[in-house]
């Protein structure tokens, strides 16, 4: 979504946000459980062992809960990119002296010399019997150029019944206001990432999810009747605020009961649902061409998720961290019943006693500036701080203006969302086969190359060719976004991984905001397409080169735990402080082999001792 969030496909796509750019943070946050003490590492590790040995890594209960909590991401995706269709550009012209804002467009009247941002001064107007304007031009350039900027416009409503662009006259000098409205959304998304993230750790995942859904529904309904563009934008701030509150919290609830090896699959599923939201939005936009009705349909569709207060339980993992064991026990026993298994009585007592043993042992806390103190980590951080705005800019730019490469806006919007699904599946399959670095670099390169090829082909590109180019570039950048969520966390050590991902997510908003102004404002100006495509293409290709030649491959390598390990020094954390992470197949085999050897040795020693006792 920007896409997850896609956009925050989606980030978007929005964000798309937040929007997609937060999914990796979710995975590693779930694993670390937002703690930095040895106490939490120890108890969390034992809780995972207890949980997955009893419930299984992905039983029937986990599947149902994960599917339910991920469904709201469809509505998040629709709200993230709804402004693209609510303020869809429509043909317009300056109003004649005798006309009003609601006058017919008359675009087929050959006697009417149409201009857009220049006035009709000096042109006498009379009305004939049929009511059509009868314009007499003494000099042709007076009709085409005029002298002053016109104060009112007439819009073509033959296809789009009522656009927000039409209602608030968001053209000419006021054209930048279209970008300002989407900016409000991204500002809200940035605030929501911090606010709801903190609240989720303090008051619980479920309460935050319901609070965010309520905020989304309220702001969505009020935006339907917003009287001005800035009040509409202000309300979109709250829609953006709810984005991470719904998307991130829902995924956290779902993944906190899923085993480690299924968490990457969970990330892909949320991305697919984010794309589904865009597909639904595009189809609705084809048939609902009144922006207020479209906004109402999107918002009312989200009302059903308020029932989650009675359907979705609180996260058992969060309850355990709060030592609310009886409540966690109720949740887990219901899960065990659905999965057809049983739980031991008072399972939490062992966790609590182990907590007491580990009290007082603290792990050093690292700050953001520690990313820049050592050479290898500094290099990785600076490159990541460039890659994330790049992927965010290209993704949201193409999501907000799907017809940038030509073709029909609505058809491109739907096809662009459709292509995200196979792109995500291919990335999921390729990451563990051809490597994170190559997949990420290839995605950047394909997106940038398609944009450049389209630019050099000119404006007379066949519709089929433009759609194919759009699908390749959109699929490539979507796949890159997903790959970045897996690749980036593996570049940083555990002790500062969440901090690094948080900074990458924050800096990615710069790309989303830049994309907003380039796609919703600059691209609408004369020759504006150049100022959108060239920056996107150059940055994407630069990112491809940096990824391929300046970053290491992380596939099949152990995750670094400390900064010293990243710098090539052998200073691993003591075993009891090692964070829990999914084991690879090789690691599991080695662990089983060692376990078997140890068991064999112990049995041999026991037999020897028994023999000695018998001889005595």
UniProtKB/TrEMBL annotation:
Q: Mind telling me which residue stretches traverse the membrane in this protein?
A: 66-88, 183-201, 208-232, 238-258, 265-287, 293-312, 381-398, 410-431, 438-457, 463-487, 499-518, 530-551
What the entry lists under InterPro entries is as follows: MFS_dom, MFS_sugar_transport-like, MFS_trans_sf, Sugar_transporter_CS
- Tell me yes or no: is Kinase among this UniProt entry's keywords: no
Output one GO MF annotation: transmembrane transporter activity
GO CC terms in record = membrane
Recite the UniProt keywords alphabetically: Membrane, Transmembrane, Transmembrane helix
Question: Which species is this record about?
Answer: Cylicocyclus nassatus
The protein's matches in PANTHER family, at most eight in alphabetical order, are given as:
SOLUTE CARRIER FAMILY 22 MEMBER
Taxonomy of origin reads: Eukaryota, Metazoa, Ecdysozoa, Nematoda, Chromadorea
Q: Where in the cell is it found?
A: Membrane
Q: Does the keyword Nucleotide-binding apply?
A: no
Q: Which Pfam families match?
A: Sugar_tr (PF00083)
Task: Outline the segment boundaries, as ranges, of region: Disordered.
Answer: 568-616
Superkingdom, natural source: Eukaryota
| Name of protein | Major facilitator superfamily (MFS) profile domain-containing protein
Membrane topology field? Multi-pass membrane protein
Q: Which residues form the Major facilitator superfamily (MFS) profile domain?
A: 75-555
């Amino acid at each position: 979504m920007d896409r997850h969030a896609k956009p925050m496909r989606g980030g978007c796509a929005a964000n798309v946000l937040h929007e997609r750019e937060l999914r990796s943070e979710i995975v590693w946050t779930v694993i670390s459980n937002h703690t930095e003490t040895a106490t939490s590492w120890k108890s969390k590790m034992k809780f995972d062992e207890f949980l997955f040995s009893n419930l299984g890594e992905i039983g029937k209960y986990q599947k149902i809960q994960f599917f339910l909590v991920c469904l709201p991401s469809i509505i998040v995706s629709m709200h993230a990119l709804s402004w693209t269709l609510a303020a869809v550009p429509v043909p317009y012209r300056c109003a004649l002296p005798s006309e009003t804002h609601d006058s017919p467009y008359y675009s087929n009247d050959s006697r009417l010399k149409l201009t857009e941002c220049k006035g009709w001064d000096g042109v006498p107007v009379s009305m004939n019997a049929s009511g059509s304007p009868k314009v007499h031009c003494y000099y042709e350039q007076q009709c085409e150029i005029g002298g002053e900027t016109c104060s009112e416009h007439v819009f073509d409503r033959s296809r789009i019944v009522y656009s927000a662009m039409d209602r608030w006259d968001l053209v000419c000098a006021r054209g930048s206001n279209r970008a300002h409205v989407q900016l409000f959304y991204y500002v809200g998304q940035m605030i929501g990432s911090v606010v709801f993230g903190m609240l989720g750790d303090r008051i619980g995942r479920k309460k935050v999810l319901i609070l965010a859904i309520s905020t989304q529904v309220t702001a969505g309904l009020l935006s339907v009747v917003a009287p001005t563009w800035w009040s509409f934008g202000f309300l979109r701030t709250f829609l953006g605020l709810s984005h991470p509150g719904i998307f991130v919290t829902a995924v956290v609830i779902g993944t906190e009961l899923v085993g480690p090896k299924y968490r990457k699959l969970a990330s892909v599923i949320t991305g697919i649902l984010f794309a589904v939201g865009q597909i639904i939005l595009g189809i609705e936009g084809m048939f609902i061409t009144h922006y207020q009705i479209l906004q109402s349909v999107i918002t009312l569709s989200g009302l059903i998720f308020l029932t989650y207060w009675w359907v979705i339980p609180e996260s058992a993992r969060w309850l355990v961290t709060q030592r609310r064991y009886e409540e966690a026990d109720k949740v887990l026993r219901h899960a065990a019943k659905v999965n057809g298994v049983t739980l031991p009585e008072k399972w939490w007592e062992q966790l609590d006693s182990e907590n007491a043993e580990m009290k007082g042992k603290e792990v050093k806390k690292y700050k953001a500036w520690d990313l820049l103190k050592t050479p290898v980590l500094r290099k990785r951080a600076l490159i990541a701080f460039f890659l994330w705005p790049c992927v965010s800019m290209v993704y949201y730019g193409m999501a907000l203006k799907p017809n940038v490469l030509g073709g029909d806006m609505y058809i491109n919007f739907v096809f662009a969302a459709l292509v995200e699904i196979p792109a995500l599946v291919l990335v999921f399959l390729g990451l563990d086969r051809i490597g994170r670095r190559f997949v990420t670099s290839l995605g950047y390169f394909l997106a940038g190359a398609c944009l450049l090829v389209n630019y050099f082909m000119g404006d007379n590109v066949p519709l089929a060719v433009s759609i194919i180019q759009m699908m390749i570039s959109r699929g490539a950048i979507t796949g890159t976004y997903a790959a970045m969520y897996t690749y980036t966390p593996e570049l940083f050590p555990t002790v500062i991984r969440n901090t690094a991902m948080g900074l990458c997510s924050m800096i990615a908003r710069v790309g989303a905001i830049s994309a907003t102004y380039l796609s919703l404002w600059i691209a609408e100006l004369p020759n504006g397409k150049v100022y959108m495509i060239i920056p996107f293409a150059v940055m994407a290709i630069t990112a491809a080169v940096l990824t391929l030649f300046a970053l290491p491959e992380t596939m099949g390598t152990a995750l670094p735990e400390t900064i010293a390990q990243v710098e090539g020094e052998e200073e691993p954390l003591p075993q009891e402080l090692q964070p829990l992470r999914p084991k690879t197949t090789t690691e599991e085999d080695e662990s089983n082999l060692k376990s078997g050897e140890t068991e064999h040795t112990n049995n041999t020693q026991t037999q020897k001792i028994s023999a000695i006792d018998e001889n005595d």
